[in-house]
Design a protein that fits this description.
96 residues, 2 helices, rod-shaped, binds zinc ion
């Protein structure tokens, strides 16, 4: 996945343009807006698979989902931050 630096669209492969005869330069373009050579690699949300910016783990929607679920778990179990961390660490090691 790639993200266009101009229009912000995500796409799987850029469109390869025609090679310029005199320079041998071949532009690769955003399929949405046609901007050449202005895109960077993107990641996918680990939860829903939506494309997201490189270096992120989750998309904004899933971040909100995870946050509210975790808050619910923490408040139901009456755990503070350390308690949540220990409980999650235990769960990941034991159950996943
Ligand atoms: Zn674009
Ligand atoms: Zn997501």
């Amino acid at each position: 996945m790639y993200k266009c630096g101009r229009c912000g669209a995500y796409f799987s492969e850029p469109i390869i343009g025609e090679m310029e005869q005199d320079t041998g330069y071949t532009p690769s373009m955003c399929p949405e807006c046609g901007e050449p050579d202005d895109y960077e690699e993107a990641d996918n949300c680990v939860v829903c698979g939506e494309p997201i910016e490189m270096g992120e783990e989750l998309c904004d929607d899933c971040k909100e989902d995870v946050k509210s679920l975790m808050k619910k778990v923490a408040s139901e179990l009456g755990l503070d931050q350390d308690g949540m961390y220990n409980a999650l660490t235990w769960y990941i090691e034991e159950e996943l």
